[in-house]
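Example A, followed by Example B.
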Amino acid sequence: MPLSRPIFVYVKLKSLEKPEVREFVEFYMKHADKLVREVKYVPLPKAAYEGNVKHAKDKKIGTVFGGNNEVGITVEELMKREAKM
């Protein structure tokens, strides 16, 4: 099995005010599950993509990592965390 890591898309809050950026994020999250499977990546749970769209609409920013690397944590565990600035 090859080594892997999550791929993140970071969008500035000011950029989300632009319709084309907001629409791209929504398109990306709506189609990501299918697209990542085509290139043999492992997709996130459906709730993660939906949560990302909601965060973009709510203009929720921050990180759940707190600047630390973590091994063995699940996506579901990360989704339960509150983002920090």
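Example B, a separate protein, is given below in the same form.
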Amino acid sequence: MINRILIRIKVVQMLYSYFLTKEEKSFVDAKKELKKSLEMAYQLYNYIFVLMVELTDLQDRRLDAAKNKYLPTEEDLNPNTKFVDNLFIKRLRNSQVFADYQKENKLTWLDDDIFMKLMLDKVLKSDVYVNYMNNGSNDFVEDCELWRELLKKVILVDDDFTDQLEAKSVYWNDDLETIGTFVIKTIKRFENEGEKAFMPMYKDEEDSRFGEQLFTQAVQNRERSDELINKFVQTENWDTERIAFMDRVVMNVAVAEVLNYPAIPTRVTLNEYIEIAKYYSTPRSGQFINGILNSIINYLKDERVIVKE
């Protein structure tokens, strides 16, 4: 689940913080915080799935309570159970990866009962839910689509939900958009792969080491990368003192990746860090970083420092 795109973002964020607070934060502490940040991103991924399961369970309890009212209506006695019988939720419960993580971490929203009731009410009043319940068909693809649409149009965009996440962890302030996308993609994959679609934290051992290694290399290579950055900033007649600090950090990490990962094409590295700069720095950062990094990469190729495409 934690792919290299997210790892790169986390390394840039942590390097920015480390360079600003080196007087207060040791290199070892910064690496520990990076590891914790990545672990919390995966926890958020699981937390969103837990929310879907527990919202379903809450509605099931509501329907059951309605049957036991003093004067239940016909609808109370014979409710439409399409939502609580959702086939995607049933398969999610059977995911061994999801179950194992839950057993170890015991994530739950049940302590947030007011929030859960409000969120369920918003789900039940949404056009997505109403249209789903009014559709007489019942198949797995439709049940997956329901939760993708509820996430996109009701849950992930809800202010109460984002406030709740911020209250739970400071690490999640910038993660929701990225992790929400991973969750939606996972639900889509369920249509073909079933419960195997639920993603482990890392694809493989190499990815699990990538973040710490890249962070270390960016710190160790800072002087060299700064020299390269300054060389081509001056060539382009930019003032090195006016470079946005985040732009420099992004380029520090990008140069470290170019120099230390021969298997990663330079175009992949370039594109990834241009996008990171566009999102986290200034409106002009993407174009600026594109020009400087292109010049650095071409120079390193000409000098035979790197030989990759």
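On Example B: The radius of gyration is 24 Å.
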